[in-house]
User: Fold these one by one.
Assistant:
Number 1:
Amino acid sequence: MDDRSAIASLLEEQDDFLITGMVDDSFGLVHSAINLQPDVLVMDFFLEDIDTLKLAPVVKRNSPATALIVLCSLDEHIAVDRVLRAGVTGYLLRQDFFGDLASAVRSVSSGGLYVSGMVRDQVLKYFSLYSIIAHETGKSPPDTSIAHRTFTLTELQIFRGIIRGDSDQEIARNLNITIGTVRNYICQAKKKVGLQNRTQIIMYVLSNGLIDWESGSLGRPKKGS
């Protein structure tokens, strides 16, 4: 069984997934993204006809709401930082995909970030506070000493939900607030630290120890709600 068949078989076992198609090349992938606007695309890191780092931005321009997961071998993980900066929010090691694929799809489809555990330390090291801001926004980083007093408890609980792969609706229900309130909190949080999207926010709080990636435990939020 090849990777595509294995992936399809695994996803078909999930009640909440619908596979809309499988393609053979990058043209087919972009064509499907434009016409089907899928929630998630899963693709190999090494494609025969185009560099994934060039393909990912093309897909995102034509289907902004589509989340991308790349499947990569352990000896290729040196590229994780470049893949995430290209617009990919799911980085799944081939060694992990049998057990982790469904979780990865659920996480990225809800606006979250998924990175296989074996390369998370590398991701956090690369996406330090300076790296996020300097490479992604071109702005100078603020004083990192303010990190632990930047966000409220409610904001951190929302971020924890995103890391878990919860949808905005699930986060709102768990916190007993509206979906609009969830999105307003996220918008305010981005403005607080000058970041642009959910992935950058999540890497910010993880890099600064505000949320533990494995346990989901919170750090030291500032007082207030």
Number 2:
Amino acid sequence: MYVPEHFAERRVPVLHAAIRRIGFATLVTAGAQGIEASHVPLLLDPEPAPLGTLLGHIARENPQARHAGDGEVLAIFLGANAYVSPSWYPSKATSGSRVVPTWNYAAVHAYGPVAFFEDAARLEALVTRLTALHEAGRPAPWSVADAPRDYLAAMLKAIVGFAIPITRLEGKWKMSQNRPPGDRAGVAAALHGLGASAVAAGVLGEGDPEPA
């Protein structure tokens, strides 16, 4: 990922927090069959430190598991993002309209080798954790234990799990840092008006941008 210095985010705790907050990634692999991608919910374990391990699963019928090979894979987490109009820049009035549109966004790229697994107990533990995470806070949270055992066993046979020990993390917080304060304020105000409050907060530096 191309990351100019003023957009770079390198703090591992911040990148980990964004991964957990977003929770959904594009898994990209490149093998003998070419480049393949799947869109999957992922868990982040903090070990091994300092970068941790990503855990997820894909359908057994998905050929990506057979084609991934032994090389590096990439998980892309895209957070809050929004179009930015040059009309929002107060400096447009004094710059002779030497401004162009752009797009603000937050993204994390996690790289590492992938290992697929089919062990039923390990798969059940994984889907139980994923379900508990996303059901938390609901009035009547559903649990994997609510499913009949025979049905659950059949569903587990239909997936394969994977683990990606992270070897490299990249973060890009492109939030108008290259614009003067007045332009950033104009962008934030316009984004707030459009309901893109997470990106607006990122532009103002009020905490890390939330996922869209």
